[in-house]
Specification:
The complex is a heterotetramer. By secondary structure, chain B is α+β, with helices and mostly antiparallel strands. Chain B has helices at residues 17-27, 60-64, 91-95, 121-125, 142-150, 153-158; strands at residues 3-7, 38-42, 47-51, 70-73, 78-81, 101-104, 109-112, 131-135. Chain B has two domains: 1-52 and 120-147, Alpha-Beta Plaits, CATH 3.30.70.20; 55-112, 2-Layer Sandwich (Alpha-Beta Plaits). Chain B is globular. Chain D folds into three domains: 6-203, Aldehyde Ferredoxin Oxidoreductase,  A, domain 1; 243-439, Aldehyde Ferredoxin Oxidoreductase Protein, subunit A, domain 2; 449-612, Orthogonal Bundle (Aldehyde Ferredoxin Oxidoreductase Protein, subunit A, domain 3). In chain D, 38% of the residues lie in helices and 13% in strands. In chain D, the strands form four sheets. In chain D, strands 2-1-6-3-4-5 form a six-stranded mixed sheet, with helices on both faces. In chain D, helix 7 (213-229) packs antiparallel against helix 20 and helix 11 packs parallel to helix 13 (361-376). The chains are: A mainly beta, B alpha+beta, C alpha/beta, D alpha+beta. Chain B: This is (Fe-S)-binding protein.
Chain lengths: 84, 159, 417, 615
């Protein structure tokens, strides 16, 4: 049962369980879980999840369902954002 | 039903699109200094406050006018300056305890909000919903109304 | 019930309209001492300047306004009042009975005792008729001497200049301009401004004599200085029109003393406007405030009381605004200060900007402004509502020009911090 | 219309004020603001001029959309030769000053010479005066701005001024308007100080007119809707500001930390946008009080922060517990992550100091980071720093040095010379994270490869605002590219540089480009300005501006050798994160970039290129 850190930032932070620290929560997943499974588990749609990073690496929308997570992975998600 | 500007300062970001829209409506140029609505930047309290005439029932400006140049538009409840009659004496500007009727030295006349004849440009231009044009009864812009009442001399004397 | 109103200025007209609205079944008679429809003295300078015609001075623009409201307008003058009999004596003969009476006869120019004041070419400029006389003699280049540099003179000054007159103002013994509404600094700025605009301002004392010379009227001041002009306009102050009340038993001081309901010392007789000496909001004393907003407010409140709707008068705020050749100045309330209060001043003489605030007990009580027009009315708001400035007090002491911000913040409940 | 058609020429040496008509041909070629002012500047000023000499000029300039209802149309720029870089400097600012200048009837102010004594420029529509400012010399920006408003008895006066930093020649001194908006980079404030010009105070009531008012209002309204409907400009930026990037860039492993020694900061979250929203344990209030807009801006990304009154930096100075401009991402990074400081309140206070005294927080933070590295390696000692322990992570050091640098006092004045000069002085030029002497912003070129090329080729020294390829490489705007790859980055950088130059010339804020392209800008310009403005025309204007800036820098003595990065980024690989093992691939991108630009392999525009751009 891999344990994965899920980080939801900006407006998505509201979806985290209460009491989450540093915009992160731990998710215990089944073997073979994909990034897309984790996101849908939190009721997040592809459209909301504009930027998904797995350990800092960008996961394009069409690869989220095929990208598996393993123990200790960090999935970080943002809605569309900008800065400068 | 009469409608009124509902102003929610907590939604205002201080962008002044309302001021530009107002001056454009009246003068076809972008000139915040000529706007009849003004955004106050209360910097010390991190608050922006759009501010204009509430079309108060006391109508201080109207009563102060010596030449009948300010009249009530009965359909909208607005107090409207008639430029052809205004002599620019400025008595209304000191009589209005809200400071929402102002002298324009370029035109030699006073200017105030007239709700653009029922389609206020400021409300249309506001990007955040801080200024909306709604049925007067539901405004809860009671705050300004309340203020208007407080400014009544009778009330003031009893405070 | 018959309500009679003497005087068709702003106080009288507002009272008549208010009575009509509040007591629809009653009779209302408005006695108008001058010919023509009721007009506004405030507008005379603009008519004199040619900015508006005589019609533009009318207090109500619509023809038949009073008739349509069922207000009887009677052109006549009242010569005496029999309070016991509830009856007025009229100049044109006859008398008029009233149930309730409002005296709103206003004021008229005070004539100083100067030899030569009766000479042709010496006028007041108070009524429309006065204005017609002045206008008839006014040409571009006409030399006009204004006797007195008070509000009335100063407001005419601009009109005369706009008509192309060559204007001289005599400030009288004080040597100051608009001293009843502006402090010495503000008056000095106005004087400097007028001089810079080509107006001659004389501070050489009081006029002692006017004589007729071949080249015009020669005015001698008590300093010995002389001024020559084609026309003299007397604007040395006003007095309340109470002469016809002699023997009526009504209590008079500077004007008709009225109580907190604008009633005089006599039953069923009220007074309003320039002639009334009512409560001053700022001082708590009874004073004459000869200004349009007070006249209107008096008229409204007196009428409510006459109509049987007891309405206390909260007191008037003395305030005024003046435009001298484009320089706008204002005064409010206790601009001269209040004992134990604090004063904040900002002066930029080079740019003719001045702001003086008088603060007392954490509130604004008075102000003088020169060169400021934006949101000027908030000064009235701050004084009248007696807003506690809270944290804004200190900010205003650092920068008094942030008045409007202070007012709006306080209005939004952001005063505390 | 839209240009007022006239500008002011102020000769401070002679004390004269002149009005001149705008060159309409140039306006058609260079649009306005960054473009048009650069044209004027390069026509009038010797590229070899000493930046702080009276012969240097500075131009305050608006764009054609400044002062119009186009969203964000409130910008102005300051164009001069930068004392930090020796390059053309163009610093862009928002707030309300730009609109006021335009509303007073002026497209630009060209300031020349040096006043014999401190002065400020007072503009009230056509009334323009050079007035004595000796009472304000030495005063802070905040004192100056508030003081001038009181002096003028006009709360609506708009003021752009410098603090002691600009007066004393801090080389990254900026010009601050509206208390916390700044023409921030390249040391334009030091140029102002060298001219003894304390402030420009403006009040304008003439109105700004556009060519086709009805069409303009229709397109401006339509484009405002585009911004409102876009998730970035409509939701993300208003709520979180630019600071939302802190966690993103950290996750990506491109958050330069402790003077670029590392690429991830363990304390990033504590100084992020999300942290600014969290109630503080001390007083229960969040750092962020509200968001605020610049003139005409329907995005409103500005942060207004209220400090914790109990924070050590302000316990004895309660005036700083009033709200003021909060940290933007670059500032939070430079003074936070790059210095290893994870104290949001300390960063906020340092940011207040930067605003109050007029210094660029990016250059300040980066220079401090370099000094901290020198301190940790023992080159600097406590005796040399005035007793302050310049340790990475020290909030006390940050707070102290921000104020000292802002005031141009003590060790702060040394820091005020910028990281290149500072590190060179102490014998370690390799520790200066700069290009053309200007400090980097907040993106590590090892983790975001396009930014390496952006920094190396920027005409005003290292800068993110000249081609923000982060938009594409990280945020997927307008399309996603791989931040770790150098492929296609030369073309990306060129396209961003040219488009950005056009936006900067228009009076519009670059942040609109999260939702807008030139396709959205062009119709607004076309309705506002004389001439025909299409995206194609604008792109060419942008390229022309870029090339003209390049020409100036080459004439000033820059060469292709200056288009490079510090050794640390070229040789030392990132140690953690996705970019682990990577260095910047600048050498792969630069030749391609030159070629795409129509420049020689030595980075010089060919005659054909110049002719194509009518230069």
């Amino acid at each position: 049962m891999p344990r994965v850190t899920l980080k939801l930032f900006a407006l998505l932070g509201a979806r985290l369980p209460p009491g989450s620290v540093a915009n992160a929560t731990e998710v215990v997943t089944a073997e073979g879980t994909c990034v897309a499974d984790i996101l849908s588990g939190f009721g997040l749609t592809d459209r909301e999840c504009h930027l998904v990073l797995l350990n800092g690496n960008f996961v394009p929308v069409d690869e989220r369902a095929s990208t598996r997570v393993t123990e200790g992975d960090a999935v970080a998600v943002w809605p569309p954002i900008g800065g400068g | 039903m009469q409608r009124a500007l509902l102003i929610l300062p907590e939604k205002c970001t201080g962008c002044r699109q309302c001021e530009m829209a107002c001056s454009f409506e009246k003068d076809r140029s972008f000139n915040p200094s000529k706007s009849r609505i003004r955004v106050f930047d209360i910097h010390s309290q991190a608050r922006f406050i759009p501010y204009t005439c509430t079309q108060c029932s006391q109508a201080w400006c109207l009563h102060a006018c010596p030449v009948d140049a300010i009249r009530v538009d009965l359909s909208l409840g607005t107090k409207v300056v008639h430029d052809s009659l205004c002599v620019g004496c400025k008595v209304c500007t000191i009589a209005c305890p809200f400071g929402t009727i102002n002298y324009n030295a370029d035109s030699g006349k006073v200017a105030k909000c007239d709700l653009c004849g029922g389609d206020p440009a400021c409300a249309k231009a506001c990007p955040t919903g801080a200024i909306t044009y709604v049925d007067a009864e539901q405004t809860g812009y009671g705050k300004m109304r309340h203020w208007a009442v407080k400014t009544d001399t009778q009330t003031a004397a009893q405070v | 019930m018959h309500h009679v109103i003497i005087g068709a200025g702003p106080a009288g007209v507002t009272a008549a309209e208010t009575l009509r609205r509040e007591a629809p079944a009653d009779n209302v008679t408005l006695i108008c001492g001058e010919p023509g429809p009721p007009y506004s003295r405030m507008a005379i300078p603009y008519a004199l300047a040619g900015k508006i015609g005589e019609d533009g001075t009318r207090l109500r623009q619509r023809d038949g306004h009073f008739e349509s409201l069922g207000i009887a307008v009677r052109h006549d003058r009242v010569t005496a009042i029999d309070a016991a009999a509830h009856r007025l004596t009229l100049a044109e003969g006859g008398s008029l009975a009233y149930d309730r009476l409002l005296i709103a006869t206003g004021s008229s120019p005070a004539r100083p005792s100067i030899p030569g004041l009766d000479l042709p070419g010496v006028h007041a400029c108070w009524t429309l008729e006065d204005m017609r006389k002045v206008t008839a003699q006014l040409r571009p280049g006409t030399r006009v001497l204004l006797l007195g540099a008070g509000f009335v003179s100063c407001i005419i000054l601009q009109s005369l200049v706009q008509r192309g007159a060559v204007v001289t103002v005599s400030c009288g013994s004080s040597g100051r301009m608009v001293r009843s509404m502006m402090d010495e600094t503000a008056g000095g700025l106005i004087m400097a401004w007028c001089r810079a605009k080509g107006v001659t301002v004389l501070t050489g004392g009081r006029p002692s004599a006017i004589t007729s010379a071949a080249s015009g009227l020669l005015t001698t001041l008590d300093s010995g200085l002389t001024a020559e002009s084609d026309l003299i306009i007397v604007g040395t102050g006003v007095k309340t029109n109470t002469g016809f009340l002699a023997g009526s038993g009504i209590e008079l001081d500077e004007g008709i003393l009225v109580d907190g309901w604008l009633q005089s010392s006599l039953p069923d007789i009220y007074a309003a406007g320039d002639v009334a000496q009512g409560l001053n909001l700022c001082t708590g004393a009874r004073e004459v405030h000869a200004i349009q907003p007070t006249a209107v407010e008096h008229g409204r409140v007196a009428a409510l009381n006459m109509a049987g709707k007891p309405t206390p008068f909260g007191g008037s705020l003395s305030m005024n605004t003046l435009d001298t050749l484009g320089l706008i100045s204002c005064s409010f309330g206790l601009w001269m200060g209040k004992e134990g209060g604090e004063q904040v001043r900002l002066l930029d003489a080079g740019r003719f900007r001045y702001l003086r605030l008088e603060l007392f007990d954490g509130r604004l009580v008075g102000a003088n402004t020169v060169g400021m027009t934006n949101e000027i009315g908030v000064i009235r708001g701050l004084i009248q509502t007696r807003i506690r400035l809270g944290g804004w007090l200190e900010r205003l002491k650092r920068d008094p020009s942030r008045l409007a911000e202070a007012y709006v913040a306080c209005a939004q409940g952001l005063a505390a911090e | 219309m839209s240009w007022t058609g006239k500008f002011l020429r102020i000769d401070l040496s002679a004390g004269t004020v002149k009005t001149e008509a705008l060159n309409r041909d140039w306006a058609r070629q260079y649009l306005g603001q960054r473009g048009l002012a650069t044209k004027y500047f390069t026509e009038e000023v010797d590229p070899k001029v000493e930046p702080l000499a009276p012969e240097n000029k500075m131009i305050f300039t608006t764009g054609p959309l400044t002062g119009t209802a186009a969203s964000t149309g409130g910008r102005y720029s300051v164009v001069t030769k930068g004392p930090l870089t020796g390059c053309i400097a163009c610093s862009n600012s928002g707030g309300f000053f730009g609109n006021e200048l335009k509303n007073a009837g002026w497209d630009m102010i060209i300031v020349e010479g040096r006043s014999p004594k401190p002065v400020y420029l007072s503009i009230e529509n056509e009334t323009v005066e050079i007035r004595d400012a000796s009472a304000y010399w030495g005063k802070t920006v905040w004192e100056t701005e508030n003081g001038l408003k009181a002096d003028h008895q006009d709360p609506l006066l708009r003021v752009a001024s410098i603090g002691a930093a600009g007066e004393k020649g801090v080389l990254y001194a900026c010009i601050v308007n509206d208390l916390h908006r700044a023409a921030g980079r390249s040391g334009v404030g030091a140029v102002m100080g060298s001219k003894n010009l304390k402030a420009v105070a403006v009040r304008g009531t003439r109105g700004v007119r556009v060519k086709d008012p009805d069409r303009f209002m229709a397109v401006a309204t339509e484009q405002k809707k585009v911004l409102a409907d876009n998730a970035v400009t409509g939701q993300g930026l208003p709520k979180f500001g630019t600071q939302v990037l802190m966690n993103v860039i950290n996750e990506l492993g491109a958050l330069p930390t402790r003077n670029f020694r590392e690429v991830q900061f363990e304390g990033a979250h504590k100084i992020s946008a999300e942290a600014m929203h969290e109630p503080r344990p001390t007083d229960g209030k969040p750092n962020l009080a509200t968001n605020g807009a610049c003139f005409g801006c329907t995005i409103a990304c500005g942060r207004i922060s209220r400090m914790d009154p109990g924070h050590f930096s302000i316990t004895s100075r309660p005036q700083y517990s009033e709200p003021s401009g909060g940290v933007e991402y670059e500032a939070a990074w430079a003074m936070g992550s790059d210095c290893g400081v994870d104290d949001l309140e300390a960063c906020t206070f340092a940011n207040f100091m930067c605003n109050e005294h007029g210094i660029d927080p990016i250059s300040f933070g980066s220079t401090l980071a370099a000094a901290m590295e020198l301190y940790e390696t023992g080159v600097l000692t406590k005796e040399m720093t005035g007793g302050v322990e310049l340790k990475f992570g020290s909030a006390e050091a940050l707070v102290k040095m921000a104020e000292l640098t802002g005031r141009g006092e003590g060790f702060g004045l040394e820091l005020g010379q910028g990281s290149r000069r500072f590190c060179a002085k102490y014998g370690h030029p390799e520790l200066s994270m700069t290009v053309k002497s200007q400090e980097f912003p907040a993106y590590d070129p090892r983790g975001i490869q396009g930014m390496g090329l952006t920094y190396a080729t920027s005409n005003r020294g290292a800068c993110h605002l000249r081609s923000y390829t982060v938009a594409s490489e990280v945020l997927g705007i307008p399309f996603k590219t791989d931040p770790l790859s150098t492929d296609g980055k030369a073309a990306l950088v060129k396209a961003f540089q040219d488009a950005t130059a056009a936006f900067d010339a228009s009076g519009i804020c670059i942040f609109t480009t999260f939702a807008w392209s030139l396709e959205n800008l062009a119709p607004q310009l076309d309705a506002a300005c004389e001439g025909e403005w299409t995206p194609e025309v604008l792109l060419e204007v942008g390229e022309r501006i870029w090339t003209l800036e390049r020409q100036f820098n080459l004439a000033a003595g820059m060469t292709a050798k200056d288009d490079t990065l510090p050794k640390r980024l070229l040789k030392d690989a990132a140690k953690t994160g996705p970019a682990k093992g990577l260095t910047s691939g600048l050498d792969k991108m630069l030749p391609e970039y030159y070629q795409l630009r129509g420049w020689t392999p030595d980075g010089v525009p060919t005659p054909e290129t110049l002719s194509r751009l009518a230069l």
